[in-house]
Write a structure and sequence with these properties.
The protein is α+β, with helices and mostly antiparallel strands. It has helices at residues 57-67, 94-107, 130-143, 224-230, and strands spanning 25-29, 36-39, 43-49, 72-78, 116-119, 123-126, 149-153, 157-162, 173-187, 197-213, 218-223, 234-242, 248-251, 254-259. The strands form 3 sheets. Strands 1, 2, 9, 10, 12, 13 and 14 form a 7-stranded mixed β-sheet that branches.
Amino acid sequence: MARFLVSRAVCGHQSVKLVGLFIAAVVAGVLGSGAARASETKAVLELFTSQGCSSCPPADKLLAQYADRKDVLALSLPVDYWDYLGWKDTLASHDYSQRQRDYATARGDGDVYTPQIVVNGRDHVVGSDRAAIDAALARESERGLPVPISLTSNGDATTVNIGAAAGDSARRGTIWLVMYDRSVTVPIARGENSGRTITYSNVVRKLRPIAMWKGDPMSIDLPKSEIDEAKVARCAVLLQTEAEGGLPGPIIGAAAIYYGHAGQ
């Protein structure tokens, strides 16, 4: 597969030795009006995309289909390294670019491109290749997500319950709070996608570490006020193991919940 070429089937490649942070087990939620809805998340898809990449729109469209599945948490993480091509991505964060590089460093392959999907913090595939994504999901289903996680709402807070490490699974990880919007439509005026209007699904707006998990059962209360202040429609709680050097490791558990109407 070609790299370093913006207009190829996969846009771009960068190899940067930068150490960063990321995620592993997932719990998603939307804090708003209405009753809480919960589902069991069995896999996490992280799409690294860009408004400045002409190869990305098919992947953005495909991710929306996975975002509708109850057993998958599909997230869009817009990167900023294509901004120099003539259009500054209105949703991008340098943190997401760094996170993608950290994944590549942890894997040891240095593969950083768009559209790229990382599945459960392990495999990476071209984000527009449905067959490759489904094959990666099938491999992950065989491994399973050994750490049980649940999310419940009790009014002004949401309680995250994380179970104990199972068998020989990892016994240490970082718990992250991820805040995201269900759908964002962007008209693009310049660059490779000039004149197109593209809808992005489950766009991550903010992520931050909130606690460490050390293999024992634990609970965390998430105040509704933090989600309200972020002005987003949904949130997720993620737990991720660490590879050597503090780099992001595999996802080992997942669960999801949201509040309000199904379309939010």
